[in-house]
Design a protein that fits this description.
Layout: E1 2-6, H1 11-24, E2 28-30, H2 41-54, E3 59-64, H3 68-75, E4 82-84, H4 88-96, E5 102-106, H5 112-124, H6 131-140
Parallel strand pairs: 1-2, 1-3, 3-5, 4-5
Helix pairs in contact: 2-3, 4-5
């Protein structure tokens, strides 16, 4: 299951991601926000991030205006490795080298088609392990 969440600036893109998951048959849970009304992104980053850490969700996808706030907030949660990605290449590397368990997207930075391509790449890429495992362990420290 994938935890998805956004603030008001990312709400529209999060809704497009949910629609894509519905069409693809991908299991997800929406942790909010549930409208375009102004809200505080850390609240939603924590809800989705905690779902990943607890094992309720395997991965998380967070969306705000730039993706920066969500990624900073999520990375404060022990056990989260959130990567802010604005390209397919970065999404692949976030998974293959850093074993990122949360993806952050900026709705003002990536459009819907690119966001969905980034998500497909991120979900479709496996962690390489090997030399990267040592580095991920150092992050988890």
């Amino acid at each position: 299951m994938i935890a998805i969440a956004s603030d008001h600036a990312g709400y529209k893109l999060k809704q497009a991601i949910a629609k894509y998951f519905d069409t693809a048959g991908t299991e997800y849970k929406d942790y909010g926000t549930f409208s375009g009304d102004s809200c505080d992104y850390p609240v939603y980053a924590k809800l989705a991030g905690n779902a990943v850490v607890s094992g309720e969700a395997e991965y998380g996808i967070l969306v705000c205006g730039t993706g920066i706030g969500m990624s900073v907030a999520a990375n404060k949660i022990r056990g989260i490795r959130c990567a802010l990605c604005d390209s397919v290449f970065l999404a692949e590397r976030a998974r293959s080298h850093n074993n990122a368990n949360v993806l952050a997207l900026g709705a003002l930075i990536v459009d819907e088609p690119l966001a969905l391509n980034i998500i497909r790449a991120w979900l479709g890429t496996e962690f390489e392990g090997g030399r990267h495992s040592k580095r991920v362990e150092q992050i988890e420290g």
